[in-house]
Amino acid sequence: MICHGLKGGIGSASRVFELDGKSYTLGILALTNHGRLPDLAIGGKPIGRAIAAAQEAQSARGVGAAAAATAADAPDRGSVILVYATDAPLSSRQIGRVIKRGSVGLARLGSFIGHGSGEVFLGFSTAYSVSGDSDILPTAMVREEKLDVLFRAAAECSEESVLNAMVCARAVTGFRGRRCESLVSYMDLLDC
């Protein structure tokens, strides 16, 4: 998995929020294989450009592979899969509205969801259970005007889960010696 030109993989994040005095959770599992290095932004800073410049400097000195430096002009290909789960009582339409906010978190990281990129967002609620013999099932759902708390959680979780995947990934050397660096290799550029 290559995420913004660096090693990607699987990441996760969650948020706990309150509705009517009860705590609920929204969690996400992300498979990250998308984005371009020059577009990568963290905390609003164009860190991808700084990493690309560092990689070009290393390549000019004969250190490391030049493959990542050529990625600056490459189109956005690959995909990101975001799977959302919540215990909040949401209708299927509401779940659809919540998971669309995954693109907000991706945009915060600099992804513009290019033509060659395929994003897949899935979501479900564990709030409902079917038991008994009744023909009619009681359901509850969040008021529409209260969905903002879930929208914010969805956006934050998508951003954090992608960063989680990138921070937890380690540099690898693959087929024909192709090397993919990790975000961790460039922590000094992040001003952390």
Please characterize this protein's 3D structure.
With 192 residues, the protein is of the alpha+beta class. The protein has one domain (2-129, 137-190): L-amino peptidase D-ALA esterase/amidase. 26% of the residues lie in helices and 27% in strands. It has 4 helices and 8 strands. The strands form 3 sheets. A 4-stranded mixed β-sheet has the order 3-4-5-6. Strands 1-2 form a two-stranded antiparallel sheet. Strands 7-8 form a two-stranded antiparallel ribbon. It is elongated and about 70 Å long. The mean pLDDT is 90.
Concise structural overview:
Helix content is 26%, strand content 27%.
Helix share bin? 25-40%
- H/E series: EEEEHEHHEHEE
**Given this structure, which CATH class is correct?**
Alpha Beta
The average pLDDT value, as a whole number, equals 90
Distance between the termini: 25 Å
Unreliable stretches (pLDDT < 50, length at least 5) are none
Rg calc? 20 Å
Total domains? 1
In DSSP terms (H or I, runs of 4 or more residues), the helix count works out at 4
Q: For the largest sheet, list the strands in their spatial order.
A: 3-4-5-6
Quick one: overall form?
elongated
The number of distinct β-strands equals 8
The CATH architecture would be 4-Layer Sandwich
Q: Structural class of the secondary structure composition?
A: alpha+beta
Q: Note the main sheet.
A: 4 strands, mixed
Strand content: 25-35%
Looking at this structure, what is the CATH superfamily?
Answer: L-amino peptidase D-ALA esterase/amidase
